[in-house]
Amino acid sequence: MTGMVGVAGNVAYGFNTIHVSLGGVDLVDADGAATLVKPLGLVFVLALLLTAIGLAVTGTAPRWAALLIGIASVTWPASHIPNIAWLAVLTQVLLLVAFGGLYVTCRARVEPRVATAGLAG
What is the pTM of this model? Predict the structure, then answer.
C-alpha cells in the first residue's frame, strides 16, 4: 500500500512540474486539494526506504543494491525539495544502477530454471 501511495505521490509531483512549466501556480503553494501533493510526495521517499530495508533484511537482493536504494531515499528529498540539480541527477543514477542490478540478478536466478524446465518436458 505504501508503494502504491508513494507512486501516486511521485506522479503528483510530476503533474505539478508540468503544471508549473506551463505557467500555472505551484501546487505545493496552493490550498485545497493541492495540499495532497506534499504528503504524497513524502510517501514516495518512505516507499523507497522501506524497499531498501526489506531487500536488506530478507537478503533477496545484493546488499549493494539495497544500500543504493537506501541512499537514494535520503538524497531524493535532499535534492528535489531545494532543487539541487546535480544531486537529483546523482540520485536518479543511483536508482537506475540499483534497480538495473536487481533486474539482472533476478533474471539470472529465473533463467536457469526456465531452461532446465524446457528440457524436462
Answer: 0.75
